[in-house]
Amino acid sequence: FCSVLFHELSHSLVGRQHGVPIQKISLFVFGGVAQMSKEPETPRAELLMALAGPLSSFFLALFFGGIWAIFTFLVPLRIITVPMWYLALINVALAIFNLMPGFPLDGGRVFRAILWFFTGDLKKSTRIASSLGQVFGFALIFFGFLSLFRDNWVNGLWLIVLGWFLQQAASGSYEQLVLRESLDDVYVRDIMTTQVVSVSPFIFLDELVNDWFMRYRCGRFPVVDNERIRGVITIHDVKEIPREQWSTTRVVDIVKPLDTKEVISSREGAWEALRRISMEELSHLLVMDEQKVTGIVTKSDILRIMRIKAAFGGRLRP
């Protein structure tokens, strides 16, 4: 686990140095996935980010291998040599697997960086690297089934799982790039709804339920006082209060502070809004400018503009 984490953190550190912060790291037995906030701006940045992980794994392999050598030849101590040898092998295997030319593995990203350098076209390079990644994934699945037929169940199932994961990741990575490019010229201000239904902090909960939750059929409202946001209130917040206290409890008494993850500026891109909604599993984001609520943007708003752009063949602006 620590070896995989060190591998992915290396990607993250190099990414930050090149203006590509990592938003999230998902760890698996055979590696991890570092979710970038955006694509690298140059082939060089992509290459350095891709190589950082395998190089860090080789470094750990040398480190653990050195400890193994010391306690094998100089101070024989089997209780240390066995785990050190195992850790060295694990890190070598991790580096070699990730260097295989299947996008979005590190080797596939190296391949994409090289293609990008020579073609100058990130989208085309991603499409080619993604196709190679899918072929590599299907090859792993094929050899996995071959192993099953030879009664090698453990290796067979392992190869099938790895192949399926790689095939899905390769396909999804290209689709994500296409999606991101389709929203390049769209901003939150272009698609947000400006008429936001808000709640006064001084009304009672029974009024909130009858005149807001029941009327608008929405389970969450911003609480606004003199155009200043005080927080949010949801159906779940109200349900925690006994019904007999609704007529004496005001919204201000139970309002929850607004999480910064639920807020976005109208100047942000639509892709950033979609990414945040998806990552945080939100129904919408509040749009705020200069500490004032100026609108609301939902996933449906973003998908709608994507369908319109697709119907007109891409960009709407000249």
UniProtKB/TrEMBL annotation:
<keyword id="KW-0129">CBS domain</keyword>
<comment type="similarity">
    <text>Belongs to the peptidase M50B family.</text>
</comment>
<keyword id="KW-1133">Transmembrane helix</keyword>
<feature type="active site">
    <location>
        <position position="8"/>
    </location>
</feature>
<feature type="transmembrane region" description="Helical">
    <location>
        <begin position="128"/>
        <end position="149"/>
    </location>
</feature>
<feature type="transmembrane region" description="Helical">
    <location>
        <begin position="58"/>
        <end position="77"/>
    </location>
</feature>
<dbReference type="InterPro" id="IPR000644">
    <property type="entry name" value="CBS_dom"/>
</dbReference>
<dbReference type="GO" id="GO:0005886">
    <property type="term" value="C:plasma membrane"/>
</dbReference>
<feature type="domain" description="CBS">
    <location>
        <begin position="192"/>
        <end position="248"/>
    </location>
</feature>
<keyword id="KW-0862">Zinc</keyword>
<keyword id="KW-0482">Metalloprotease</keyword>
<feature type="binding site">
    <location>
        <position position="11"/>
    </location>
    <ligand>
        <name>Zn(2+)</name>
    </ligand>
</feature>
<dbReference type="GO" id="GO:0046872">
    <property type="term" value="F:metal ion binding"/>
</dbReference>
<keyword id="KW-0677">Repeat</keyword>
<keyword id="KW-0472">Membrane</keyword>
<dbReference type="GO" id="GO:0008237">
    <property type="term" value="F:metallopeptidase activity"/>
</dbReference>
<dbReference type="GO" id="GO:0006508">
    <property type="term" value="P:proteolysis"/>
</dbReference>
<keyword id="KW-0479">Metal-binding</keyword>
<keyword id="KW-0645">Protease</keyword>
<dbReference type="Pfam" id="PF02163">
    <property type="entry name" value="Peptidase_M50"/>
</dbReference>
<dbReference type="InterPro" id="IPR016483">
    <property type="entry name" value="UCP006404_Pept_M50_CBS"/>
</dbReference>
<keyword id="KW-0812">Transmembrane</keyword>
<feature type="binding site">
    <location>
        <position position="7"/>
    </location>
    <ligand>
        <name>Zn(2+)</name>
    </ligand>
</feature>
<keyword id="KW-1003">Cell membrane</keyword>
<dbReference type="InterPro" id="IPR046342">
    <property type="entry name" value="CBS_dom_sf"/>
</dbReference>
<protein>
    <recommendedName>
        <fullName>CBS domain-containing protein</fullName>
    </recommendedName>
</protein>
<keyword id="KW-0378">Hydrolase</keyword>
<feature type="binding site">
    <location>
        <position position="106"/>
    </location>
    <ligand>
        <name>Zn(2+)</name>
    </ligand>
</feature>
<dbReference type="Pfam" id="PF00571">
    <property type="entry name" value="CBS"/>
</dbReference>
<feature type="transmembrane region" description="Helical">
    <location>
        <begin position="84"/>
        <end position="103"/>
    </location>
</feature>
<dbReference type="InterPro" id="IPR008915">
    <property type="entry name" value="Peptidase_M50"/>
</dbReference>
